[in-house]
Sequence to fold (135 residues):
Amino acid sequence: MRRPVVVLSLVLLLAACAADPQSGARPNTAGAGMDKGGDLQEASLPPPDVTNPARLKGLNARQVTALLGRPSFTRKDAPAEIWQYRVRSCTLDLFLYEEGTTHRVAHYAVRSPQVISDQACFDEVLATLRGVPTS
Fold:
């Protein structure tokens, strides 16, 4: 009975020593990378390279602001927030819902008096943010 415990202990010890000390990898410790609210500090992450409006889903409020700037209009209907980005030919609505201590995009919608694709509206929002003239 004692032999399996000794063998298991040796295997675990060897596995712990097998990590490459030159890799610079650090163990994931409890509390590392956490802010006071308990969520990962995502504010320090650069905004994701989002070129498709479907990829907005899951972004937190700070990431959306870093990517698209401040919305033209916001409305709070707990537990949701609706952010509107209004440009010449359309309005991009983002629906953010509470997740822990932050809000995340759960859904988006494009509205326009004329027919426009979600992608074309999103491209116009990005172009307007960057100061690129739109037709």
About this structure: The two ends are 79 Å apart (CA to CA). The first helix runs from residue 2 to 17. The mean pLDDT is 76.
